[in-house]
Inverse folding.
């Protein structure tokens, strides 16, 4: 859609692809990260009876911009005895992983980076790059805290991929597609058509599916939360134990890229969760565009709803972060292997039975 | 509940020569003077003997008596020669609620005291501190190294009365 | 200011404006190294806590020296610690600032005379930008010290000094 | 064939977010499992005992403030009691009451820091700020009393620096009224949070026998199930006039003497301290607070070991006097210093994350360990 329009505008495939692939970065990820960092600080501050940044701009609106500008100016320290190549590559890989995930995320009916059929599987797979990046950075830093953080991250992310994938498979069994666009379209209509409430097909299956889907949502939310290392699963960068985890040795812009990737990731998982269970970009109450018969309003509305759902889950993540303590590494593992994985297996079985019936 | 006099009598009967004297002049608390190399045996007895039960060591404290001869060295600094360094032990029984104070005095030039670290683990760091500050050597202590001062401090034992500051430590000036 | 530092020999309007922007960024995002030494550290924590809220000025504690811009020497520096402080300071990337908080780190404080193990002033090992007096300084005093530091950063320049 | 593994030595500190100051821990770890821990202290050794030998008795009071800087009032309290016992001074009733009020308020403030930082160690940052918010109110009470927020020099030998502010009683009552709900909120947020309990229960168990042998005192000893509090068992000042309980660890969520118990003791103790403050401000008599301050502090020759219950345990002052204006020797039996010895023993076999949990539960203050 956007691609077609760009193609007709410029007449060059290359430019169209180039512009389209960079669009999410400039239109969404960077502004979102800027807003999210500030939002996190403000949300945290207000939860803690504080005010948060107040001095730059109105209520500290420019705080993140100042931070980025400052980080740009900082010296890029390279300690002796580090593996320079991997050290430099690591933040890029981490960012690439979270950035590539945005390619398959349907922001609205008219705009998604790439409408690939494997959508959801692709996202789960490509975020695996993050592990490689973190492990690389932790190892190359030649710092024991970084190494510990990286090892924890690797163990954690790989373990939590399993329940995530199991739930994804469960969802695929119901929807019959891996394409996120088709999946969102499938949940069209009003909010009772969302998968969390059993999907659009009425009947006994919907009633049976609803509680199962609620559980599935909880599991995938928790396991993706663990995949992006947010509290209560933030053990790879547990500040009070291993200083700053895998990015202990990073300074300046490289650190900023890690930071950016973290916030991009936060949105990515919220987007996946809302695309799977909450109708993706679908509005819960029908469209204003349909009512007023303005065709171009619908994609914009859809974009709004999608962002709203995403930001809502990001806010939930922040809320959890500033409320809960953190797990220990073995508790985290047993939580995954003893609870999440068996439960998701059972869910898979039950949902399989229901869909067969 | 026993008062220091009774404990002194018990110890005197048991150990004889080792227990030297009971000092008690009010208003201060009384203490029992013990020979430095036998203190561990006395303490073990005090801990395990029924009716004494001194299960906990409240405090262990070194002290420089500064009772030696004050002379001037070649740099015109006053140093003390001879005399004693002492160690005070404050014991307490939590179940019987009585306390006793022991004191050992040892030679300033070669201060050696038997360690009670095996008897009360609490003494571990206290003894290391006394070693660090006064240079009192606790025999049979498993890890008698400096604790508060840097491990490579060469300026001597700071709480001795004749301690002189070194001029520099690792390139940093010590005096103001 | 990184690569551009002191690279220009004469001042002009563009440089001045760029300078202002860069200085503004630096002074409004001073990340503090989360590192306390002694009594003053408690007041430093109180300054970060809800009542005084360091975050208003964009100051957040970072656990790693690599990511911090300002180190607040909050308390008595002993010889054993001085070596480590020097090392921490060296580990911080450039554009680093030092606030010496409290009498002890200014000059040895109450331990100046008989403190055989106290470094009499942290400026004997690392350069200090702002001294905050007090034993311990009140949080307001630390905030004032931070504002003074911001003022100092505001007047930094890309132009190399002449004569 | 088994893989060859190597032990790794991890240096935690002196600059580390959760060593509560400048402690250095040398951890030998295998993977995440702790093989042994060696604490290295002395990074804040400020020569307190040397200063005592050259200062006069009243001049030492400000230095005692700076030992356990979270509980300055209690430190002063302990010191002046020791000197008063040595000199045989009787202080007026009003002074005793004010001292007790101050010491108990200080105990609450100190426990708030301990609890807050413990929450931060476990990963919950918000309770830390909530605790500091409440602590700020206590500091305001101290501030109207003596003008200082942290290091007071308020309790003098034989009396006080000056009398209470006229508003003090009213403000303290207001504080108590505000603080009780906040304490409940803290319990809901942190104490009975399941993740928090999972992290701290059954971790770092300290049996009573070991605790006594290691000389552990204070909340840490009581968490191990030993009912031992100097305010009851060896009463000083006027503590025998108040009605309060000594909380003892029961192992509600795990074993007696684990980290959670040690943490929970502090919550319970704050409630008891509130009770003491309430009773004291209701009973406080009128009087002159400076009538018993001696013109010249010159104790007779002799020695005394005097101790008080600090927020962290038994704070003892061993004072040797030769009859002059400055003491020959003052040795401080700092509770944190003694409590820290057992740390290496507690950590064995646990994980890296547990090290900070155990360290936080012991609640050390480095200023007191190193002096």
């Amino acid at each position: 859609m956007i691609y077609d329009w760009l193609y007709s505008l410029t007449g060059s495939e290359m430019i169209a692809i180039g512009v389209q692939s960079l669009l999410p970065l400039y239109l969404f990820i960077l502004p979102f990260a800027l807003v999210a960092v500030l939002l996190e600080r403000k949300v945290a501050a207000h939860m803690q009876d504080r005010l948060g940044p107040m001095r730059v701009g109105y209520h500290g609106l420019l705080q993140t911009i100042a931070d980025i500008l400052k980080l740009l100016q900082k010296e890029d320290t390279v300690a002796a005895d580090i593996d320079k190549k991997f050290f430099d590559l690591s933040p890029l890989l981490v960012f690439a992983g979270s950035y590539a995930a945005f390619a398959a995320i349907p922001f609205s009916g008219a705009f998604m980076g790439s409408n690939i059929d494997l959508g959801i599987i692709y996202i789960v797979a490509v975020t695996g790059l993050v592990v490689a990046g973190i492990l690389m950075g932790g190892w190359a830093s030649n710092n024991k805290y970084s190494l510990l953080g990286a090892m924890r991250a690797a163990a954690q992310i790989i373990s939590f991929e399993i329940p995530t994938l199991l739930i994804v498979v469960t969802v695929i069994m119901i929807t019959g597609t891996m394409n996120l666009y088709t999946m969102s379209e499938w949940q069209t209509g009003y909010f009772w058509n969302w998968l969390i409430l059993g999907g659009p097909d009425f009947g006994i299956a919907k009633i049976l599916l609803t509680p199962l889907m609620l559980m599935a949502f909880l599991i995938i939310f928790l396991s993706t939360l663990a995949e992006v290392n947010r509290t209560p699963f933030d053990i790879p960068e547990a500040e009070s134990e291993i200083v700053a985890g895998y990015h202990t040795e990073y300074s300046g812009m490289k650190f900023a890229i890690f930071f950016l990737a973290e916030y991009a990731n936060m949105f990515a998982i919220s987007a996946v969760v809302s695309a799977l269970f909450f109708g993706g970009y679908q509005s819960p109450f029908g469209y204003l565009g349909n009512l007023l018969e303005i065709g171009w309003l619908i994609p914009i509305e859809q974009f709004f709803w999608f962002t709203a759902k995403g930001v809502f889950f990001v806010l939930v993540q922040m809320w959890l972060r500033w409320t809960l303590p953190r797990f220990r590494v073995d508790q985290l593992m047993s939580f995954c292997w003893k609870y999440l994985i068996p439960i998701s297996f059972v869910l898979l079985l039950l949902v399989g039975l229901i869909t067969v019936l | 509940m026993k008062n220091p006099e009774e404990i002194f009598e018990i110890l005197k009967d048991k150990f004889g020569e080792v227990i030297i004297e009971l000092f008690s002049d009010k208003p201060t608390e009384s203490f029992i003077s013990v020979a430095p190399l036998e203190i561990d045996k006395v303490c073990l007895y005090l801990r395990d003997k029924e009716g004494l039960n001194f299960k906990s060591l409240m405090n262990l404290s070194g002290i420089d008596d500064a009772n030696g001869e004050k002379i001037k060295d070649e740099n015109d600094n006053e140093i003390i020669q001879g005399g004693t360094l002492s160690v005070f032990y404050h014991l307490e029984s939590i179940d019987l609620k009585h306390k006793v104070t022991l004191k050992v005095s040892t030679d300033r030039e070669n201060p050696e005291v038997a360690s009670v670290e095996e008897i009360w683990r609490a003494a571990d760091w206290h003894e290391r501190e006394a070693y660090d500050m006064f240079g009192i050597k606790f025999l049979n202590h498993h890890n008698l190294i400096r604790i508060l001062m840097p491990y490579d401090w060469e300026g001597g034992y700071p709480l001795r009365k004749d301690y002189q500051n070194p001029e520099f430590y690792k390139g940093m000036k010590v005096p103001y | 200011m990184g690569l551009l530092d002191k690279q220009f020999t004469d001042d002009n309007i563009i440089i001045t404006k760029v300078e202002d922007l860069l200085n503004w960024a630096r002074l409004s995002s001073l990340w503090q190294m989360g590192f306390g030494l002694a009594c003053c550290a408690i007041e430093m924590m109180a300054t970060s806590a809800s009542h005084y809220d360091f975050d208003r000025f964009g100051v957040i504690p970072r656990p790693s020296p690599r990511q911090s811009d300002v180190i607040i020497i909050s308390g008595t520096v002993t010889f054993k610690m001085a070596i480590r402080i020097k090392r921490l300071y060296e580990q911080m990337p450039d554009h680093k600032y030092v606030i010496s908080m409290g009498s002890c780190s200014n000059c040895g404080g109450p331990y100046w005379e008989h403190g055989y193990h106290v470094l009499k002033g942290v400026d004997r090992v690392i350069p200090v930008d702002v001294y905050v007096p007090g034993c311990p300084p009140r949080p307001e005093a630390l905030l004032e010290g931070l504002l003074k530091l911001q003022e100092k950063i505001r007047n930094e320049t890309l132009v190399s000094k002449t004569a | 064939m088994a893989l060859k593994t190597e032990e790794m030595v991890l240096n935690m500190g002196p600059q580390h977010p959760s060593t509560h100051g400048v402690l250095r821990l040398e951890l030998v770890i295998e993977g995440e499992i702790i093989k042994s821990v060696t604490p290295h202290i002395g990074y804040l050794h400020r020569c307190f005992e040397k200063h005592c030998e050259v200062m006069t008795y009243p001049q030492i009071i400000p230095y005692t403030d700076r030992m356990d800087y979270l509980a300055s009032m209690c430190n002063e309290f302990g010191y002046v009691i020791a000197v008063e016992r040595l000199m045989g001074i009787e202080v007026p009733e009003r002074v005793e009451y004010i001292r007790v009020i101050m010491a108990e308020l200080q105990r609450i403030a100190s426990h708030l820091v301990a609890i807050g930082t413990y929450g931060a160690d476990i990963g919950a940052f918000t309770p830390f700020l909530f605790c500091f918010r409440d602590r700020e109110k206590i500091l305001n009470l101290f501030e109207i009393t003596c003008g200082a927020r942290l290091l007071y020099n308020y309790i003098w030998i034989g009396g006080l620096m000056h009398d209470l502010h006229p508003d003090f009683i009213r403000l303290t009552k207001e504080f108590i009224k505000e603080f009780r709900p906040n304490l409940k909120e803290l319990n809901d947020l942190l104490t009975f949070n399941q993740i928090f309990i999972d992290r701290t229960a059954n971790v770092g168990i300290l049996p009573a026998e070991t605790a006594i042998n290691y000389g552990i005192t204070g909340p840490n000893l009581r968490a191990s199930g030993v009912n031992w509090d100097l305010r009851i068992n060896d009463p000083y000042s006027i503590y025998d006039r108040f009605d309060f309980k000594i909380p003892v660890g029961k192992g509600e969520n795990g074993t007696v003497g684990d980290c959670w118990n040690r943490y929970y003791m502090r919550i319970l103790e704050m409630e008891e301290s509130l009770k003491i403050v309430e009773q004291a401000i209701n009973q406080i008599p009128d009087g002159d607070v400076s009538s018993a301050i001696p013109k010249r502090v010159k104790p007779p020759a002799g020695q005394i070991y005097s101790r008080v219950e600090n927020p962290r345990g038994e704070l003892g002052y061993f004072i040797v006097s030769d009859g002059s204006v400055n003491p020959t020797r003052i040795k401080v039996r700092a509770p944190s210093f003694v409590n820290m010895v057992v740390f290496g023993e507690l950590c064995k076999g646990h994980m890296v994350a547990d090290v900070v949990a155990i360290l936080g539960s012991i609640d050390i203050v480095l200023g007191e360990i190193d002096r």
Notes: The radius of gyration of chain D is 21 Å. Residues 227 and 352 of chain D are 31 Å apart (CA to CA). Chain D touches chain C through 35 residues (CB under 8 Å). Chain D has a mean pLDDT of 86.
